[in-house]
Fold:
Amino acid sequence: MPEPTLITHNPLIVLLVLPFLVVFVWATWLEVRRWWRYGPSGNNRAAFPIDETAPSYEPPAPEGDPDAQDVNTPNEHSIEAETMTDAKTQINETVKSNDVVLFMKGTKEMPQCGFSSRVAGVLNFMGVDFTEVNVLADENIRQGIKDYSDWPTIPQLYVKGEFVGGCDIITEMTLSGELDQLFEQSGVNYDKDAADKIREANG
Structure:
């Protein structure tokens, strides 16, 4: 019976040597495969096939180069900023060109939140001719009107281009008679008797 060798006697040596053998065999196979496909190249990498359609890196063109890429090409952030600017411009034009504007959720005929319904209901009952803007139809307007007025909630009422307030303020002004005075001072037609009936009902 042959004497056990050092390797068979100590399995730890096998575990240490085996990874090196695996790497050696794998590297040898890769080199043989490369030689078989491309032949001896003498490290001449030009012999390998090149995909002409693959994207390549090009260093930035020097300043003043007419072929340089336009650095002002719009990106996602600039497009978003431009969209918000357009929304504020649209809001400003709407507010300035109409005597009474209500930014609300839904329409005056079909409000889609209780606060919008209350303010629109007051204006409708008082016979005020107002322009409504449904913020649910345009997310940019919905956020833009908050930035425009620096007021975090909707609805928002504007009279003669000036921000008056939201639901709570309009309710208080209606019950105190301040809204009547504002309409009178601004030359906005409204039904005085209807306004008095609101106060009587909530007295």
Notes: The CA atoms of residues 16 and 22 lie 11 Å apart. The chain is about 50% helix and 10% strand. The helical segments are 6-9, 11-38, 76-97, 114-125, 139-149, 167-176, 178-186, 192-201. Strands lie at 100-104, 131-134, 156-159, 162-165.
